[in-house]
Each structure stands twice: as structure tokens, then as C-alpha cells.
Amino acid sequence: MIIVKTLTGTAAGQCHGSHAPPAPAVRQRFSAALLLAASASAGAYHTDHQGLSEAAWTADIPKVVFATRQEQSVTNAPSSVTVINREMIAAQGALNVAEVLRLVPGFQVFASNGSTFGVTPHGFSDRDPKRMEVRVNGRSVYLPQLSSVAWESLGIVPDDIDHIEVVRGSNVPAYGSNAILGAINIVTRNPVQEGGGSVKLGAGSAGTKVNSARQNFSTDTMAMQVRAAYKESDGFGGVDDEAHVSHLVFNNVYTPDLSTSIETEFGYSKGTFGVGDGDHLDEFSDEQRRAAWFNANWQYSLHRQRFNLRVSYSDYDFQRSRKQLLSGLLSDALGAPVPPELIPQLGMQPGFEVLQGHVDEALELEAGERDFSVFSLELEHHLDLSYGSHVVWGLGTRMDRIHDGTFVEGGVDTAVNYLFANLEWELIPPLVLNAGFMLEDNNGFDPELSPRLALNYHINPNHHLRASVTRAYRQPALLESDRLWTLRFADGDLIDLVQISDPDIRSERVDTFEVGYYYFAFEGRLGLDIKLLREQMRYGIDRVDAYADVCADPNPDPRVAPLVEAYCPDFFVNGEDGAPLDPKVGVFSNTARWDLEGMEAQLTWKIDARSWLRLDYAYFEMDSERAWRMNKPDYVSLDPKSVPRKSGGLLYSIKLPQNWRFGSYLRYEDEVKWRSGTDVDSHTRLDMTVAKTWRWGASEAELNLTVQNAAKDTYLEFQNNNEFGRRAFVSLTVQWP
To answer: Are the beta carbons of 591 and 567 closer than 8 angstroms?
Structure first.
């Protein structure tokens, strides 16, 4: 656990109006353990450079961990890193964890439905964004079933967050395949850092209620925390996407001596979410989601070494059902009513033999019940080789398991074993080298080696440069490599083959080159981070729609012939025809590529003791291509709007007299065309929050009013009918020591 000091001059563990109680023995002991751990990997500068002390070089420069798994200054990290602390979260006024990430340059955050979210760097995504590793307190929350993250089921509300580190760039060399475009680590409030407890009650527009509570306990060697929350929302107007979700989490930190600490977490989340496509409002249905997890991290520190052993297990159960009578399905396919009594006769007609022996019955058109789990075991070894040189290396294994009667027809297990290392080496006092790699072995695929090399040059305490290059691979997730989605009668007879994986599917590859510049002034009160990047994706995994008639044509249209040769599947499943009624099947294969160039920037300015601002901006030019479908001349989509060309935001906070606080966040985003969504026009959104605090002794209460989209007409979020208008929320929080 690292306490990150941000450029606002406020520790990530501090929050306006908070009162930390006197530290008991466990806090003193754990703080000492952290100090020993930090000394094992401290400071890149041990000698004066141009007459400047080490303190002059490192004062008020943020420390980060998630770029390489070891603590280092952001000016020594191989990638740009955004740190979001509690003060920023309070100023923004976000109600959901995903919304907090709008503060990250180059990131897009959208509500796919009323209470389900997607987060993606650089656009080019569907409703379940892939290609980004997300961890909570070090535990991966990647879902093998979605190849994505269920943000609404993480067991966190924004008030629970201590700080967030976001690596803006490929981080596979540190955290594996899922981090091919970026990585996020969400660190919750630790019972060692705070005592007492709090209760928050909130309500507002769209039938939203957010109630949460947190309580900390401590003994001489242990600090514990229990937190719980309940949320509900009616979703978007006119859309059946209401939701409610609750969670209960227990954290524990045990420090038997100054060199050892053991952190554990148990959690449970359960909710119901209205899910569907905004173009087909009659097809919305409820999805039941249950998640349970365990996470443990053992840390042992010596003078120049540290060992981390992490074990985690997550179990998920998702259920979504939407049934339709066979007669209705046939009526839709034929464009004319099919009475149930005519089904046996229709089965006698050529092309409808699949209906023989069957009568009208309700067929499951959705995903049904899906049970999946992730087990992970990691060992890290940190070693201080000499002053200014540090290495972290380790190995791990992850087991993904799916039991699914719809998407994979049974159970599938996949083991991923990996080895990683990163060296931070001070070549000469102003020049630091980062060299790292990840070697991954996924069952069924060739091992992939993902290397990264970065040079950081420190001109003086105010100016720092970085150049880095990465080649990274993302091996196919379970439902990309083993998908077999079929529609069947109750007796098991095949009706339709819906989606299938290309048997020759391979890993995605991304080559990234970036140049970064950091500028600090006014003793760290002003910080500027600018990055220029070029990103090339090859063999991107996407879906192409294949058609039985086109695939069977011995002389296909020359414009689709390459796709026919590359992606036409076998339409038969165990000898049964998979396209008797619907000739289309979605094939997951390496059908996409893109070239992206652009820049990202963020500026943080602590104006004075009462106010600060944070500015972020991104500009991208993208040349993208993906195979789309085989029965149209426009079978290849070339759309630069798959990523917003320009986006940015301004976050401002000020403390006013009489314990008032004001925050605002102004966000602009260019138009974007979403995969499986719709074209969203450019829009500007202004969110504002006003809070008043009362204190008595060591306790306090805060009344907060947040208005979202305060100065703008309705705009679309991701898909049709997701119309986001002006919304208001009020909450009351009471804290005690």
C-alpha cells in the first residue's frame, strides 16, 4: 500500500473536513512496516546533480506503483500515469466509480444502460470494452465471460476510494494481456489510515438512491473495516433499464511485526440490471448478477528486499432470460404470421426440416445462466540492487473457468502462466532506464513475449523527458477463443448457430511509441504532463457476420472473396445444420486493425491554500478498419470517428468561508461512432457540486448537492434512447471518530 501525494499538495489519504483519530499501535506498527518497504525501493537520485539536493529533485512529485509494480516517481515511470485522489472525486461529484474515470485524458466513459457502464481508452469499443486491466486493491476484476469489467458489481462507491492510478498506455509488461491499452488500480480506504465510521444517505433524479456505511475497528496488531452500500435507479426515461444493487465488504490488515503485513478482503455483491439494445426497447430484460470474492496479500520486507504473495478468487453468477414462442420467431423470420398449429406442416417444407417433430414452445433468446470464476496466484520479489537501481520480478498463474450452457455449450477451463520483470536503472544521474517484459503462456496458444523499453531524462528539477517503446500481445479471452452460441429446442435439437470462434484465432498485437514531457513549477504546485503517442493495432479481435449463402457460393463477389476464404465457418454443429432459419452467424476472429496518433495532456495547479484546478485534453487521429459483413459491398468499415478526435475537461475546487465547498467539472467530447451503439454527437457537460460541513468535536456532517449536465440540453450516452438530461442529487454524510 502506497500513500500517493498528488500535485494538488494534498495527500491522497486526506479529504476536506476529515479528522483522523490518534493512531493506535497497529497504525504505528503498519506505518513503520511501510517505511521499511519504501526504503527498499526509495529514490532514484543519491548524488547531487548540478548542485541540487535529492530533496530538490523529488519534492512534491507524485509517486506511483502501477506502471511497473514498484514505487517510483512519475518522472521515472515508463508510461504516463494519472493519479486521482479523494479531493478530486469529491469535486467531480460522480455517483458511480466508472464516471470518476472521465478525469483521465483520452478515456471515454459511457452508460451502456441506465446503471451499466463502459470505460475505454481511445474509443473503438462495443458495450463491453476490452483491452484494459482493472484491479481493486491489487485484485484483477477482469471477467472471462465478458472479456471486460462489470463496473457496477465491484463492491465500491466513490466515497470508498482512497486513490486511483491509471497507466495511460500499454502495460502488458507489468500486468499481462488484459492491459494491452492501459491499466487501472483502484485503492480503497484502508482501516490503518482512518478510524471511526460514516453513514451516507442520498437520493435524486431518475429515481436514484445511494446509501452507504463504513465502520473501522482496531486492536494492537490488527485494523479492520466493514463497508456496505445499496444503490437503485430507474435508468433512462422510457427505457426498461431500472436497477438495484447492494454489496458487503470486509477488509483486514494484520501486522504481527515490523517487517510483515497481511491484508485480506472478503466481498459479496448482488444486483438486478435492466439490459438491452436501445434500438429494440421491447427486447429489454433483467439480468441478475452475483459476485463473491476473496483477496489476500502477504508482504515481507527486509533492508533491501521485499516479497509480495497475492492470492485471489472471484466467483460470478449471471442470469439473463428472454423467451419467445417458436411461432413468433418463425413469424419474424418469414415476415408473415405462423399459427402454432401450422408448425408441423411447415416442417414438411424444404429448408424447414429442423421443425419436424416439434410443436410451439418458448425458446431462450438471451444468454441464460452463466457461472464463471477466476483464481489467481502471484509472487513478486523487489530488490534494491544499488543506489538508483531497482528490480522487481515475479511469476504467477491464473485459472479462468466458465460453465455456460449457451455461449460455450458446457464448461471451459483455461490456465494462463506468466513471468515478468522490470529493471529501473540509473545509467547516469540525469538518465534512467526502464526495461521490462511479460512472458505469457495461455493453454492452446503459443507463448507471447511482450517487452518494453523506456528512457527518462531529467533536464533539471522542473523539466523531464521520456521516450518509450512497447510491443504487447493480448491472447484471446475464453469467449473469444471458445465461443459456440447456439439456439436449441428443449430436447437439444439445433435451431440456429448464433456465434462461433474462428479456430485459427490468434493474439492481438499492439506496437506503441510515446514521447512524454513533465514540467513542475512553484515547488510542485503546478504540474504539466504531455504525451505524444503512436499506436498500431494488428490482428484485432472483432466479429464479422458470415452468411451461409455467400459462403456456399463457388464464385463469390470479388469484393468479399477474401473474407469468404478467411472467415467462413462450418455452419454444422456435430452434424446438425446451424443455419436453417437464420443464414447469419457471427465469427470472432482477427478482423480489425487501427493506427492511432495523437497527444494527451493534463495540468494540475494548486492556485492557493483554498483552490485548485485540473485540466485534461486529448487529440487523436485514427485510421481504422474492420471486416463487418460478407453480403454487402461495404464489407469493410473505415471510420475515423470510432474515437473522439478531441476531448477534454476542467475540474475546479474551492473551499469557501463557513465550511462551504464548491466543485465543478466541465467536459467536452467530439462525436464518436460506437460499435453496437450509435453515433453520438459532440457535446459539452457541466457537473457542479456544493457542500456545507458542520463539526462538533471530532465528528462532522456534510450536506451535498450535485447537479449533472447543469447547463446543457439532453445528449446521448452510447446508444439510442439513452438520453441524459439535467439531473440533481442530494446527500447527507455523517462521520464519527
So the answer is: yes
**Confidence (pLDDT) at 2:** 35
Contact 737, 19 (CB under 8 A): yes
pLDDT for residue 245: 97
Are residues 264 and 329 both part of a single domain?
no
Partner residues linked to 685 by β-bridges: 667
Q: Which domain holds residue 197?
A: 25-313+367-496+672-683+695-736
The count of domains in the chain is 2
Last residue of a domain, one of 332, 364, 396: 364
Which residue, among 511, 502, 561, has the nearest Cα to 537 in the 3D structure? 511
Residue 286 included in any domain = yes
Q: Note the pLDDT of residue 634.
A: 59
SS3 90: helix
Read off the C-alpha cell for 593: 486493425
Written as one letter, the residue type at 326 is L
Tens digit of pLDDT for each residue in 71-109? Answer: 999 999 999 999 999 999 999 999 999 999 999 999 999
Same domain? For 267 and 416 the reply is yes
∠ CA 712-713-715, rounded to 5°: 105
Phi, psi angles (nearest 5°) of residue 174:
-100, -35
Q: What is the pLDDT of residue 28?
A: 52
- Mean pLDDT, to the nearest integer, of 183-188? 96
d(CA 300, CA 308): 7
Mean pLDDT in the chain?
A: 88
SS3 82: strand
**Shared-domain flag, residues 342 and 372:** no
Residue 662 lies in a domain: no
Which residue did the predictor score with more confidence, 31 or 572?
572
CATH number at residue 291: 2.40.170
**pLDDT class of 636 with cuts at 50, 70, 90:** low
How many angstroms separate the CA atoms of 639 and 661, rounded? Answer: 43
- Of residues 465, 475, 432, 471, the one with CA closest to residue 451: 471
| 413 and 464 fall within a common domain | yes
pLDDT number for residue 524: 86
Which has the closest alpha carbon to 591: 566, 622, 560, 557?
Answer: 566
- Backbone φ and ψ of 481, nearest 5°: -95, -25
What integer is the mean pLDDT of 552-577?
Answer: 85
Give tens-digit pLDDT for 447-472.
Answer: 999 999 999 999 999 999 999 999 99
Indicate the SS3 state at residue 94.
coil
Domain shared by 45 and 119, yes or no? yes
Among residues 373, 371, 379, 421, the alpha carbon closest in space to that of 397 is found at: 379
481 falls within a domain: yes
Q: Are residues 185 and 331 in the same domain?
A: no
Q: Give the lowest-confidence range in 1-5, 95-99, 365-369.
A: 1-5
Distance of CA 659 to the CA centre of its chain: 35
The three cell numbers of residue 124 are 473503438
Q: What is the DSSP letter of 169?
A: S
Strands 368-386 and 431-442: unpaired
- pTM reported for the whole predicted model: 0.90
**pLDDT, tens digit (0-9, with 9 covering 90-100), for 665-697:** 999 999 999 988 899 999 999 999 999 999 999
Query: When comparing pLDDT for 662 and 482, which is higher?
Result: 662
The residue written with cell numbers 517503446 in the block is 469
Residue 534 forms part of a structural domain: no
**Whether residues 200 and 343 fall in one domain:** no
- Cα(493)–Cα(409) distance, integer angstroms: 13
SS3 of 2, please? coil
Asked if residue 339 and residue 211 are part of one domain, the reply reads no
| Element housing 39 (H / E) | helix 25-39
d(Cα 138, Cα 154) in Å, to the nearest integer?
A: 13
